[in-house]
Amino acid sequence: QVQLVESGGGLVQPGGSLRLSCVASGFTVSSYVMRWYRQAPGKERELVARITSAGTSSIYADSVTGRFTISRDNAKNTVYLQINSLKPEDTAVYYCNAGNGAWGQGTQVTVSS
Questions:
Q1: 98, 32 Cβ separation under 8 angstroms
Q2: Which residues lie closer than 8 Å to 12 by C-beta, 6 or more apart?
Q3: Hey, which bits of 1-113 come out as E strands?
Q4: Nearest to 37 by CA among 86, 107, 110
Q5: What pairing do the DSSP bridges indicate for beta strands 107-111 and 92-98?
Q6: pLDDT tens sequence across 76-109
Q7: pLDDT digits (tens, 9 = 90+) for 11-46
Q8: Helix (H/G/I), strand (E/B), else coil: 31
Q9: What are phi and psi of 59, to 5 degrees?
């Protein structure tokens, strides 16, 4: 069964950090481009980061460049999103997506003082 499970979200103060994890089962993440999306209340889902299957290239949304880092550990079949210098506007549900079409259930990130 193809599955993605995200974790690592939570409530953090502005300026804080979190590391989100996305663990895959039923397929090998090293075979696919992997992406992180987010969806804030009342807004469309947006792509925040993407990493190639080899992990040699990544791209980021302008709003997160310099603060977010996507990485992958193929041995653990896991993709990560390190998010630093969090801002209230980063509040959203963060979703992991694989190039085979699989989606996770999302993990909530709330940035508030």
A1: yes
A2: 18, 86, 109, 110, 111
A3: 3-7, 10-12, 18-25, 34-39, 46-51, 58-60, 68-73, 78-83, 92-98, 107-111
A4: 107
A5: antiparallel
A6: 999 999 999 999 999 999 999 999 999 999 999 9
A7: 999 999 999 999 999 999 999 999 999 999 999 999
A8: helix
A9: -130, 155
